[in-house]
Every structure is written in C-alpha cells, then in structure tokens.
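=== RUN LOG ===
request id: a7f3
mode: sequence -> structure
chains: 1
length: 322
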Amino acid sequence: MTTLPFYAPVSDDFDAVNTLILNQLHSRVPLVEKIGHYIISAGGKRLRPLVVLLGARSCGMDDARQHSLAAIIEFLHTATLLHDDVVDTSDLRRGRSTANALWGNAPSVLVGDFLYSRAFEMMVALGDIQIMQILANATNVIAEGEVLQLSKVRDASTDEATYMEVIRSKTAMLFEAACHTSGVLAGATAEQTEALRKYGNALGIAFQLMDDLLDYSGDAAEMGKNVGDDLAEGKPTLPLIYTISHGTPEQAKLVRNAIQKGSGEQIELIRDAVTASGALEYTARLAQAQIEEAIDLLQALPASPYRDSLEQLARFSVDRTF
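=== RESULT ===
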C-alpha cells in the first residue's frame, strides 16, 4: 500500500509511527497484545495517520510529536473497527478474518476499549488541551454516527440527508479530526488549520461515498471484503437510497425488500438495478464534488511535496477500485 506515490514524502515518518504503534500495544494481559497486534498488522491503507503526517509536515512541523498524533489517530480508528465488526457481525476485513470471528465478540469489544484508552493516555502525554478537545469531541460524534446508522438498519425509508449525516459522523469525522489536529500541533495559522479541517471532512465524505459505490461495483478480492456486505446487513447506503427514489417501481421494490430483509441473496439483481438507475454515477458525482472542494482548500497551504501528496491522496480517493 505504501508504494502509492503520496506516501513517499513521509515514508521515514511512517516507519517511526509503526514502531511507536507496536511499542504502545504493550499490555500485562497477553490476549490484549495478541488481538491488538492482529488487527494492527492487517495494515490497511493507514490513511488517517497519513493525513496527520502530511498535514503537519505541510505546515512546517519537523519533530516526533507528529508521530505520536498519527499513532493516536490510528488507535482510535482501529478501536472503531473492532467495535464495528462486532456490531455488523462481520467475518472478513482487509481480506482476513475479523478479530470477533477468531476470538469472539467480548474480547474484541474490550480490546477496542483498551485501544481507545491507550490513545487518550498518549494524548495526555502530548499535553495539548486543544487536541484533546478535538479528539474527545470526534470520538463522541463517531459513536453517535454509529448509533444513528444502527437505528436505520433495515429502514428502507432512510433519506439521503440522514445517510449524509451518518457518513459525516461515522467516517468523515476522524479524517477531519486527524487533519485539524495536525494543523494545531504544527502551530499553523488559523486559516491553514481551518483549511486542513475542511479538507479532512471533504476527503472523508468522498472516501465513504466511494466505499459505498464499490460495494456494488468492486471486486471482493481486491477490496478485502465481501461485495454486498452492507446490503446483507440491511444498511441503506446512497446507491440503494437513490435507486429507491429514482429507479423504476420494480427496481425500487427490489431494493426496498432487500433492505428490509437485510439480505444479499439477490445481490446480482441489486447490482443491475443500482447500475441501471444511475445511482452509481450519482454517488461518484457527489464524491468528485467533495474532492474538488478538498483540493481547492489546499491552496491555503504553502507549496511543498506534502501538499502535493494531499492532493494526490484526494484524487486517489475517487479513482480507486479498492
């Protein structure tokens, strides 16, 4: 994953962050370390710590505090993954069995709690009250987003505004907080810090829109999860919401019934319906609009390879197939 070009300017920083993450996974309880190492070693794109490093560097930061902040953000993200997989009863993530599939729900939830609390210990050590305020608020908003999404499972009447509220809270909030805190930590100007915050929000929204699009157009092996997982969980994502609103009566009925049943049995028919209705193109257009806004915001930062990488990352988020 780190062969993608936008990782290159902070490759040494990434190595330092990975070392710090492994050091901070220590626990006197062996199962905590075992599950922690398993979920962290799955890797993934590590985009949230990446935007911390690129954001801080683009504002002139050059010390190890950015590594701590990047590790904190990764721990918060990993904790949400552990909890998500329990809530969603998922058995596959990043092409591997989920922690809850291997060890059960209870250990997964508790290790998620451990990672949250370790992240806050590291925040205290960082000693910046504004960063603690931003991240404390972010974890609250993320939890609210999770509960809102849960309350809409199998609810085929969910509208686009509610869906957008879910993804702003559940996904975009941590991207926003990662970018926002990178500017704060770097001592950037108010304009630069606000530009980074808004960039993170736009990037996160676009990223989730594309994830939801790829759930119907992607390849399971490439994505590391089962195509149609969201439908099987009864989640009304934008391609489905759009198809119900803009598809033919037959397409709308097919999708509505699938959401209400929480079934992926007719996934091929659903894929045909969301494609024919124009839902995938609509979702892609919304994502592209977010990315254009994100790239415009970057003009507040001084020209540098780090700003270039933030732009490349934004473009990647809508061009990707995984």
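=== NOTES ===
The mean pLDDT is 94.
Residues 5-319 form a domain with the Farnesyl Diphosphate Synthase fold (CATH 1.10.600.10).
=== END ===
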